[in-house]
Amino acid sequence: MIKNALISVSDKTGVVEFAKQLADLGVTVYSTGGTLKAITDAGVAAKAVDSLTGFPEMMDGRVKTLHPMVHGGILAVRDNPEHVKAMVEHNIQPIDLVVVNLYPFRETIAKPNVALEDAIENIDIGGPTMVRSAAKNHAYVGIVVNPNHYDEIIAMLADKGELTKEYKFMLAKEAFAHTAAYDTAIANFLSKQMGEGPTPPEYLSAYEKVSDLRYGENSHQQAAFYKEIGTAHGMGALKQLHGKELSYNNIVDMEAAWNMVWEFEEPAACIIKHTNPCGAATADTLHDAYVNAYEADSVSAFGGIVSLNREVDAATAEEMSKIFLECIMAPAFTQEALDILSAKKNIRLVELTRPEPGQVMVKKVSGGLLVQTEDDIAESQAEYTVVTKAQPTPEQWTALHFAWKLVKHVKSNAILISNEKRTLGVGAGQMNRVGSAKIALEQAGDAAKGAVLASDAFFPFGDTVETAAQHGIAAIIQPGGSIRDEESIKAADEAGIAMVFTHIRHFKH
C-alpha cells in the first residue's frame, strides 16, 4: 500500500493536481524546494523533506535528499527482517512512491552561448540518485519520472489501493532509461567542451520513440521511428500536415530528398525513388523547378518523394496533384496549396526546417557502429583542374557545378547527366561505372548531346569517356586520381570533350 510519497520535480506539469489527488487518497506527501511551494501554495497538505531528515536544505539546494532517512526509506526491502529492524531502530519512514524528474540540463545547454558554470549547476545529483534507488527497489516502490502517468496512477490507486507489480516494473524500466538519457546529454556536452569532435572515445546517444511503423523495408520486418532526445532538427523535427502514416521506406527516401534539395539556394525541386534522384531541377520559380524535375523522368516520378526548398504555392500544388506522389516535403505550404493537395487522401504533406550543418552519419553494423562526418566539404572551382585541351564554356561550367552538387547524392557507382538547370539522366548503384553511364545516357537520349556528365569517383578505364563521347557529351566533371587518368584524358581530347578534375571523391554506399 502507498502511504508516503516523495515529490520533487523540475517539470511541474500536472504535479499540483496529482499531489492533491494523492493527499485525498490518504497518502502523506513529502516535497522539496519549488515543488513544495507550488503544492502548498495550492492548498495541498505537504511536508518538507527536512521533516524526514531533520537536516535543512543547504548549499543552494545541492544537499537536501542525499540522506539515509530518504534513501533508507526508499531502498528498504519491506519483507527483509533486518531491513525492517533497521528502519525501526533509526525511525526511518518507508517511502512508497517517488515522483522525480530532473534539473533542466538539456534546456540549459540549448541556450545560446551558455556558460559552462550554468551547465554544471544544472546537473542534477539528488534527483537521479532517488530515481535509481526507487527503480532498483521497484518491487516495493513506484518511481514516476513522466507526468503523463499521473492520471493512470491515481486511477489505479483509487481502484486497487496499490500499483501492480507489472506496472512498477514498467516504471522502473522507464526510470533507468530517463537517467541514462540524462547522463548521455551531460557526457556529450562535456565531450564537446573538451573538443573531442564527432568521433569521441565513447559514442553515446539516446532516442525516444516517435511511432511504431507498420513494417520495415519489407512486410515481415518490424520497425519504429525514433528521434534523438533533446534535439529538434532533421527528420526528428518533421511536422506531418496531412496523409496516411509515414513508412520506413518513406523516411529513408525523405532524408535523401531533403539533403539533396538544399544543395541549392535558388528555387529547386527533387524527386526521389529509392534514395536516388529520378529528376532534379532549379528555376526562377518553384513551379518551373518542379515541372522541369518531373519532365526529367516522368515515368520514374510516379510514386516518388518530392522535396522543395521554398514554400509550396497553389500553382506548384496544382502541378503536383496531377500524379500519384508518396510524399511532398517543403519548409511551408500556403493554405491554398494545402487545400489543393489535401484533396488527395493518402498523400503525405510534411513541413521541415532546413538541414543543420555539421551532423554526423551513423550506420549500425553487427556489434558496432560506423560514424562519420557528413559529406559537406566546401569546394571551389579555383581548386579544380581542367586536364583537357578543351576548356569548359561559361554555360558548361554552370552545368558542371549543378551536376556535381547532385551526383554526390546518388548511390555509387554514380553517373549523372544534366544541363545547367535539370537532370537528364541518372545511373546509380551499378557494379561498374560504364554500366551506370550507359543507363544515364540512355535515359538522357538525344538531350545528352551538348550536355555534361558528372561521376562521383574516378574512371578506372577510358571506356566511360568513350561511351560519353558516342552520345555527344560536351564536358565531364570527375575527381581524377586513377592510375589510368591519362587514358581518360586522351579519350576526352580525341572527342573534343572538356574534362575537369575536382580532386574530391563523393562515394555514397
Features:
509 residues, 6-stranded mixed sheet, 38% helix, alpha/beta
Explain what you see.
With 509 residues, this protein is of the alpha/beta class. Helix content is 38%, strand content 19%. The chain has helices at 15-24, 33-41, 50-53, 68-75, 81-89, 105-109, 116-121, 126-136, 150-160, 165-193, 248-261, 286-296, 298-301, 314-320, 335-342, 394-407, 433-444, 463-470, 485-495, and strands at 4-9, 28-31, 47-48, 97-101, 142-144, 207-213, 223-228, 239-242, 268-273, 276-282, 305-308, 327-330, 348-351, 360-365, 368-373, 385-386, 415-418, 423-427, 452-455, 475-478, 498-501. The strands form five sheets. A six-stranded mixed β-sheet has the order 8-13-12-11-9-10, with helices on both faces. The chain has a six-stranded mixed β-sheet with strand order 16-21-20-19-17-18, with helices on both faces. Strands 3-2-1-4-5 form a five-stranded parallel β-sheet, sandwiched between helices. Strand 17 (415-418) and strand 18 (423-427) form a beta hairpin. Helix 8 (126-136) packs antiparallel against helix 10, helix 14 runs parallel beside helix 15 (335-342) and helix 18 runs parallel beside helix 19. The longest helix is centred in the middle third of the chain and has 29 residues, at 165-193. It is elongated. The model has no long low-confidence stretch (mean pLDDT 94).
